[in-house]
Amino acid sequence: MKRMTRVGIAVLAMLGALSACGKGGSGDTAKHESKGPRTLQLAHVSVEQNEDMYHHLATNFAKRVEDQTKGAIKVQVLGGAQLGGERDVAEGMQLGTVDMSLLASFTLGTFEKKAMVFDLPYLFKDYQTAFKTLDSSFTDPIEADLEKSGLKILGWGHGGFRNLYNSKHAIRSLSDLSGMKVRTPESPIYVDTWQALGVNVTSMAYPELFTGLQQKTIDGAENPTALFYTSRFYEAAPYLSRTEHVYVAIPLVISGRVWDTLSADEKAIFQKAASESVQEQRQFLIQSEAQIEKKLMEAGVSINADVDKAQFRKAVMPIYEKYKTVIDPDLVTRAAALAQ
C-alpha cells in the first residue's frame, strides 16, 4: 500500500512538471509538450491603455498571433513594469525567464553598442526618414549582433520624437535650461547630450519618474508627447517644449531561447504579425498626435513650439564625434547619410 502511494505521488509530480512546460515565462521549457494552447508573456513598462504607444502595439500583436495561429499560441500582455524595468526584462529574455517585450531603442545600447546609433541627437529630420531607415538593411548588423546576445528583433515600433517637459517654464533657448534638474534614461549618449545642453542630469528608473516629478526631486524629463500624455506626467510638469531632440523606436523583441522553440511556420506568423502591427501602430500614433496635444492643452498644459533647435543642434554636435568609434564609424556615417 505504501509503495502504491509513493508511485502515485511520483506520477502526480511528473504530471505537474509536464503541465508547467506549457506555460509562458520560461523559454527553455516552453516547448510543445502541452496539447493545449501555449501562452507567452509580453512585458512592457508603460500604462495598460489602448492609446498608449507600447500597449497599443503589444495588444495588436497579441491578437494577430492568436488569430493567425488559430488560438494555438496566446500572448499575454503585462504592462506597467509588472516584470521589472526595461533592462531587467531584457536580461530576463537573455536568460529565458521572460518571453517577449517592447523596449525603448536606447535600452538596446546596453547590450549592443551598434544600437546606440539611434540615441544620437537630431539624427532624423522627420518620421518618414526614421521609418525608411528602420525598415531598411541599415538595421541588419544591429539585429544580427543582438541576436547573438539572445535578443531577437521582430519589428521596430514607433515611439516618436522625445520632447522636454518640466514644472518651471517653457524652454526656448539654452539659457532656459540653466540649473534645471532633468531625468534622462541611463544611456550614456542621452546623459552626455543633456549635459552638453547645460542641465543637471539625473538618472532615475522609469517607474519612479512620476513620483520624482511630484516630489520635486527633478524639475523635468523627456519623453515622446504621446507617452507624456498617457502616463499623465503633465499633472506634475505642465510645460511641454517641442525640442524633438531624438527619435526613439520601440522594438518588439523576443527571447532567443523562446524563438528557437518555435516552428518555421510559427516564426513566419510572428514576423508577419509584428510587421503588420508595427505599420498599424505607426499610423495610429501619427493620426492621434494632434488629438493628444489638444487634450493636453485642455488639461492646462502649456505647449511651446518656439524652440531654437539650431542652437540645440550646434551644442550637441560633438556627441557624434565622441561616439563614432564607440558605435561603429561606418554605421554612423550611413545613419547621417540616410537622415539627410
From TrEMBL:
<comment type="similarity">
    <text>Belongs to the bacterial solute-binding protein 7 family.</text>
</comment>
<dbReference type="InterPro" id="IPR018389">
    <property type="entry name" value="DctP_fam"/>
</dbReference>
<protein>
    <submittedName>
        <fullName>TRAP transporter substrate-binding protein</fullName>
    </submittedName>
</protein>
<dbReference type="Pfam" id="PF03480">
    <property type="entry name" value="DctP"/>
</dbReference>
<dbReference type="InterPro" id="IPR004682">
    <property type="entry name" value="TRAP_DctP"/>
</dbReference>
<keyword id="KW-0813">Transport</keyword>
<feature type="signal peptide">
    <location>
        <begin position="1"/>
        <end position="22"/>
    </location>
</feature>
<dbReference type="InterPro" id="IPR038404">
    <property type="entry name" value="TRAP_DctP_sf"/>
</dbReference>
<keyword id="KW-0732">Signal</keyword>
